[in-house]
Amino acid sequence: MGGLRERKKAETRARIADVALRLFAERGFDQTTVAEVAAAADVSVKTVFNYYPAKEDLFFDRAEEIEQSWLEAVADRQEGESLLAGLRRRSLGRFADHPNGPSTHFRRVLAGSPLLQAKGQQMWAWHEDAVAAALAEEVDELTARILAHQVFNIHPLALRMVERWTEEGLEADEIRERVLALVNRAFDLLDRSVGVGGAV
Amino acid sequence: MGGLRERKKAETRARIADVALRLFAERGFDQTTVAEVAAAADVSVKTVFNYYPAKEDLFFDRAEEIEQSWLEAVADRQEGESLLAGLRRRSLGRFADHPNGPSTHFRRVLAGSPLLQAKGQQMWAWHEDAVAAALAEEVDELTARILAHQVFNIHPLALRMVERWTEEGLEADEIRERVLALVNRAFDLLDRSVGVGGAV
What we know:
Largest interface: A-B, 25 and 25 residues
Keywords (chains A, B): DNA-binding, Transcription, Transcription regulation
Oligomer: homodimer
Domain HTH tetR-type (chains A, B): 10-70
Structural class of chain A: mainly alpha
Protein name (chains A, B): TetR family transcriptional regulator
Shape of chain A: globular
InterPro entries (chains A, B): Homeodomain-like_sf, HTH-type_TetR-like_transc_reg, HTH_TetR
Number of strands of chain A: 0
Order of helices and strands of chain A: HHHHHHHHHHH
Number of domains of chain A: 2
Largest sheet of chain A: none
Radius of gyration of chain A: 19 Å
GO molecular function (chains A, B): DNA-binding transcription factor activity; transcription cis-regulatory region binding
């Protein structure tokens, strides 16, 4: 469980990323230097690079954690549950916690940087590859690849619909309910496509 | 069937778009003016604007035709065929004809212009909306929306895999066979998710 030293390190790491996101949102990603992030977070440049080898890593600071959570979602499947049950739980949990998707700061920085967009797409593809590999232990490789892709594509659809519902003036509670219904229906369809037990 | 005048107009329209794509690929989209396109296609600027109201339309010159072909694919479903049969045929046909996706010129211009990328995503979303509306005549709205989204997402996966297989040095014939197998499997899964008759 870490101990004090580990906890301190995790706190410093998180603080640096928080400060970085704030600066990126204020000034733009390209216009912000690592030195400025270090100064604002009250650490040395070397410390920043210890935690985050590249400037993009300051933005995608939770990439590893996110990939891990997807893989755990596949592994967490319980006896008799559908192949995709863990992935459904993970997606539902995410939209229950953040029905509007990433924070406004995160979106703004991303929208302003083609480099981060390209990097983000690449990382998304890596997460998808990892999930496809995990699913391939239960179904054939081609099916696993397609399922992983379709699971990951539920999120962009959900976020697009949230945006529309917001523009249409729906209440937050109503949006939350609708997005969870959408995610559930999408997984119902995927479950049926492989059969609840996971057989194709 | 048009007649001579209509055919001439279609030829002029296509020639302007071909010339534009070549110039965009040589110089970049932002660096090319409509006047330069007109001069290279040997028509007036007014003629270009008659066919293509905005410069982006010169690049996405087949947008309407593409949306129409998706809608016809939904409408073309025959007695006893699955809800998605027409869409499957359309996707297979496209990859049979162009297993590597859009032309090198098209990709290069797109890669160099965030504006065109944004516009392209928007148009893709419109095609998806149109297909969702067409499917909603047979299944409930939420299911139709999800199916349309998952159908449209088969293409990016197929193109990504084609890229990988190309990097791995596979022969063109092998790639073509694999991408058609992928598209077929993806539609098999979607068919099963709604039931072959289209009932959910």
